[in-house]
Amino acid sequence: MGSPAQQDPPDYDPLINAHAALVFVAAALIGLVVGVLTFLGTANAPLSAVAGLSTSGAGVGVLHKMIGR
Q1: Of 64, 63, 37, 62, the residue nearest 49 (C-alpha)
Q2: Assign residue 12 a region: left if phi > 0, alpha if psi is -120 to 50, beta otherwise?
Q3: C-alpha R_g of the chain
Q4: 3-state secondary structure string, 17-55?
Q5: Is the model's pLDDT at 13 over the cut of 70?
Q6: What is the pLDDT of residue 54?
Q7: Distance between CA 56 and CA 69 in Å, rounded?
Q8: Predicted TM-score (pTM) above 0.85
Q9: Which of 33, 40, 52, 68 is the most buried (most CB within 10 A)?
Q10: How far is the CA of 13 from the CAs of 16, 17, 18, in angstroms?
Q11: How far apart are CA 20 and CA 23, in angstroms?
C-alpha cells in the first residue's frame, strides 16, 4: 500500500506581524506599569486607568519608531 497523500499547509497571512505584536505587547506592559504606579500613588482608579491607557496609546507610536523593522 502507498503512503497517504501529503497535503500542503494552507496559505494564509498572519493577522499581525511579529513587529506589530512586539510593539503592542510592550505598550500594554508599559501602560499597565504606569496605571499600577498611579493607583498606588493616588488610590484613584479612574485616574490610574486614564494614565495607563493614555501611556499605552502614546507608547505605540514611540515604540514603533524605536524598535524599527
Answers
A1: 37
A2: beta
A3: 20
A4: CHHHHHHHHHHHHHHHHHHHHHHHHHCCHHHHHHHHHHH
A5: yes
A6: 96
A7: 20
A8: no
A9: 52
A10: 8, 9, 12
A11: 5
